[in-house]
Design a protein that fits this description.
The protein has 158 residues and is of the alpha/beta class. The chain has a single domain, classed as 3-Layer(aba) Sandwich (Glutaredoxin), CATH 3.40.30.10. The chain is 31% helix and 24% strand. It contains 4 helices and 9 strands, in the order E-E-E-H-E-H-E-H-E-E-E-E-H. A 5-stranded mixed sheet has the order 5-4-3-8-9. A hairpin with a 3-residue loop joins strand 6 and strand 7. Helix 1 runs parallel beside helix 4. The longest helix is centred in the middle third of the chain and has 19 residues. The radius of gyration is 14 Å and the shape is globular. It starts with 20 loop residues before the first strand and ends with a helix.
Length: 158
């Protein structure tokens, strides 16, 4: 069990991103394949409306246009319901999709570790246009740093 490190994250840079289809905050089924040819910033967070998750999501919101300008899409994932995501997105004016991973299968497929053995981890994956993971950032305690890490990784993609 990793307390705050990334040693247990199964998917590493250079691996193919697991394929998925999950409902978003509007109940629409969203697949990774929907974004083929685009860079995807997939960030896993513990729970809607918690302090760190709100800071992280709002940081992605504030930088969303920067991601769009370079052809990248931001997608958040937690185990919250589509209804919870809809309220969270509306409350904080989040312009991107939030996916509901109710059974934790996507979190498990990416190997996102738990913190202290019970708190869902906070990990961001940058996936290139071909579906390959190019960057993984795992930090439960620095929620807003995920945006800078993702931007830097996309810049390195060129």
């Amino acid at each position: 069990m990793a307390l705050f490190g990334s040693s247990e994250t199964k998917i590493k840079a250079g691996d193919s991103a697991p394929r998925f289809t999950l409902p978003d905050q509007d109940g629409k089924q969203v697949s990774l394949a929907d974004f083929e040819g685009r860079v995807v910033v997939l960030y896993f967070y513990p729970k809607d409306e918690t302090p760190g998750c709100t800071k992280e999501s709002c940081a992605f919101r504030d930088a969303y246009q920067d991601f769009q300008d370079v052809g990248a899409e931001v997608i958040g994932v937690s185990s919250d319901s589509p209804e919870s995501h809809k309220k969270f997105a509306a409350h904080h004016r989040l312009p991107f999709r939030l996916l509901s991973d109710r059974d934790g299968k996507l979190r498990k497929a990416f190997g996102v570790p738990s913190t202290l053995g019970f708190l869902p981890g906070r990990v961001t994956f940058v996936i290139d246009r071909a579906g390959t993971v190019r960057h993984v950032f795992d930090s439960q305690l620095n929620p807003t740093k995920h945006v800078r890490e993702a931007k830097d990784a996309i810049e390195r993609l060129g």
